[in-house]
Amino acid sequence: MRQYMEQLRARGQLLEVQREVQARHELAAVTQAAQRRYGQAILFHHVSRTKLPVLTNIYGSRERLAEILGIAPGDFCRQWNQLASLTPGDGPFKREVGMPADLIDAPLSDLPLLTYAERDAAPYFTSAIFLAREPETGVPNLSFHRSMYVSDQELRVRLAPRHHLTLYHEKAEQMGRPLEAAMLLGPPPQVFHHRSPHQLLRRPHKSRLACGGAS
Which has the higher per-residue pLDDT, 88 or 18? Predict the structure, then answer.
């Protein structure tokens, strides 16, 4: 994601906000207004209550999505269906990725905690991807789950019936053990996009990570 952001910046297609914006409502409002007017990705350098910058709207256009996938915008739907039918390990983005050198341990409260809507009871992680493994087979699955921040020890996550994370959680409980899961923020674009194809929902034996070449 960082590499693609730098490509947008080099082409003059990245909006950058230097003044501080409020994490509660203002950042979301600015993002919505800028998307309607400019349609570009936005980097907020200074957000209240965090030292970290926030990148929004990077996947907000068909043209950018197509560029990331290496296809023409008009060919998006057909190519998307082909990506969804890949078998594990043959993803077009297959490559070895080293461990980043700038990883740090930090509590959730150090992250940007954004409140989007007027009726939101608390800040939410809205585009984070949950990575969990099927308790018996170990097959990993990626899924979006809007998660409300309560404290550094608690997130409240909505698990809809029949979704993979729900099924994994239920099976882990039946086996008498917790379900380990990771929440991915700002993952590589191929991981982000391979969460989405609905065809994979009907194939619980297939790893979305392997299809995206990120296993």
Answer: 18
